[in-house]
Amino acid sequence: MYLKKSEAPRVVRLADGSWLSRADLPEPRAYWTSARKETVVRAVDSGLITLGEALTHYDLSPEEFDGWREAVRLKGRGGLRAPAQTRVRQDALSRARREVDK
Predict the structure, then answer these.
(1) CATH assignment of 11-101, given 1.10.10.10, 3.30.200.20, 2.70.98.40, 1.10.10.1100?
(2) For residue 80, what is the DSSP state?
(3) Which pTM does this prediction carry?
(4) How far is CA 8 from CA 38, 39, 42, 49, 102, in A?
(5) 73 Cβ partners below 8 Å, 6+ apart?
(6) pLDDT digit string (tens) for 35-55?
(7) d(CA 36, CA 101)
(8) For residues 32 and 70, is the Cβ–Cβ distance under 8 A?
(9) Model confidence over 5-14: pLDDT tens digits?
(10) Rounded to 5, what percent of the chain is helix, strand, coil?
């Protein structure tokens, strides 16, 4: 396997003692889950990738990434989950659409 020469680290140790490598990063077009968002935030905060790399690679705005970072800081991975109220609204919309289609 060929590894591109880079000054950036390939693996970093996180504050909780776990390891994070570039192989652990999600694919750019992956469906965003709270775990994937948290992984990207941890990678930037630990120096595995730069903020610029994350914004470019994942096509994120600085505001969106800052929101993820703040949610992780305040509530951990749970802060990145969609609020229950949003899920209830989405379910109600789905039911309404099914009724219209009948």
Answers:
(1) 1.10.10.10
(2) G
(3) 0.74
(4) 20, 17, 15, 7, 56
(5) none
(6) 999 999 999 999 999 999 999
(7) 35
(8) no
(9) 667 788 999 9
(10) 60, 5, 35
